[in-house]
Amino acid sequence: MNVNLGEPFEVLLRKIVRKGYAGNQTEAMRQAIMAYDRQIEEEEAELVYKAVKFEMQEFKSKKTKGYSLEEIKKEAGF
Protein backbone atom coordinates (compact mmCIF):
# COMPACT_ATOMS: atom_id res chain seq x y z
CA MET A 1 0.00 0.00 0.00
CA ASN A 2 1.25 3.45 -0.85
CA VAL A 3 0.01 6.42 1.13
CA ASN A 4 0.76 10.04 0.32
CA LEU A 5 0.67 11.89 3.64
CA GLY A 6 2.02 15.21 2.52
CA GLU A 7 5.09 17.06 3.71
CA PRO A 8 3.98 18.08 7.23
CA PHE A 9 3.27 14.47 8.19
CA GLU A 10 6.38 13.14 6.48
CA VAL A 11 8.44 15.63 8.50
CA LEU A 12 6.81 14.32 11.69
CA LEU A 13 7.52 10.72 10.71
CA ARG A 14 11.20 11.49 10.06
CA LYS A 15 11.37 13.28 13.44
CA ILE A 16 9.86 10.25 15.22
CA VAL A 17 12.41 7.94 13.58
CA ARG A 18 15.32 10.33 14.22
CA LYS A 19 14.42 10.47 17.94
CA GLY A 20 14.40 6.68 18.06
CA TYR A 21 10.70 6.16 18.83
CA ALA A 22 10.44 3.91 15.76
CA GLY A 23 12.97 2.09 13.62
CA ASN A 24 11.56 3.45 10.36
CA GLN A 25 8.60 5.36 8.97
CA THR A 26 6.56 2.20 8.38
CA GLU A 27 6.98 1.17 12.02
CA ALA A 28 5.97 4.67 13.12
CA MET A 29 2.80 4.44 11.01
CA ARG A 30 1.97 1.00 12.44
CA GLN A 31 2.39 2.34 15.97
CA ALA A 32 0.19 5.33 15.16
CA ILE A 33 -2.55 3.10 13.75
CA MET A 34 -2.41 0.79 16.78
CA ALA A 35 -2.55 3.81 19.12
CA TYR A 36 -5.58 5.14 17.23
CA ASP A 37 -7.27 1.74 17.48
CA ARG A 38 -6.67 1.71 21.27
CA GLN A 39 -8.09 5.23 21.51
CA ILE A 40 -11.24 4.17 19.66
CA GLU A 41 -11.64 1.13 21.95
CA GLU A 42 -11.24 3.32 25.04
CA GLU A 43 -13.79 5.84 23.75
CA GLU A 44 -16.28 3.06 23.02
CA ALA A 45 -15.77 1.59 26.51
CA GLU A 46 -16.31 5.04 28.04
CA LEU A 47 -19.57 5.43 26.12
CA VAL A 48 -20.78 2.05 27.36
CA TYR A 49 -19.81 3.00 30.92
CA LYS A 50 -21.74 6.27 30.65
CA ALA A 51 -24.79 4.49 29.23
CA VAL A 52 -24.78 1.91 32.03
CA LYS A 53 -24.35 4.65 34.64
CA PHE A 54 -27.28 6.57 33.13
CA GLU A 55 -29.50 3.49 33.07
CA MET A 56 -28.61 2.66 36.68
CA GLN A 57 -29.59 6.20 37.72
CA GLU A 58 -32.88 5.81 35.84
CA PHE A 59 -33.48 2.48 37.58
CA LYS A 60 -32.66 3.83 41.04
CA SER A 61 -34.97 6.80 40.53
CA LYS A 62 -37.76 4.39 39.54
CA LYS A 63 -38.00 5.85 36.02
CA THR A 64 -37.15 2.41 34.62
CA LYS A 65 -38.85 -0.77 35.80
CA GLY A 66 -36.67 -3.70 36.83
CA TYR A 67 -37.52 -7.35 36.24
CA SER A 68 -36.58 -10.43 38.22
CA LEU A 69 -34.92 -13.39 36.56
CA GLU A 70 -38.10 -15.39 37.10
CA GLU A 71 -40.17 -12.71 35.31
CA ILE A 72 -37.77 -12.75 32.38
CA LYS A 73 -37.79 -16.57 32.18
CA LYS A 74 -41.59 -16.61 32.28
CA GLU A 75 -41.84 -13.98 29.54
CA ALA A 76 -39.35 -15.94 27.41
CA GLY A 77 -41.28 -19.15 27.92
CA PHE A 78 -38.79 -21.05 30.06
What do you see in this structure?
- This protein has 78 residues and is mainly α.
- The chain has one domain.
- Helix content is 72%, strand content 0%.
- The chain has helices at residues 7-18, 25-60, 69-76.
Task: Note the main attributes of this structure.
72% helix; 3 helices; 78 residues; 0% strand; mainly alpha
Using the CA coordinates, give the radius of gyration: 24 Å
Strand content: under 5%
User: What portion of residues is helical?
Assistant: over 70%
Largest sheet: none
- Give the termini separation: 53 Å
Oligomer: single chain
Q: Give the H and E element order.
A: HHH
Tally of separate helices: 3
Low-confidence stretches: none
Inertia-based shape: elongated
Structural class: mainly alpha
Number of strands: 0
Count of domains: 1
What is the arithmetic mean of pLDDT? Answer: 94
Quick structural gist:
With 78 residues, this protein is an all-alpha fold. It has helices at 7-18, 25-60, 69-76.
SSE layout and pairings?
Blueprint: H1 7-18, H2 25-60, H3 69-76
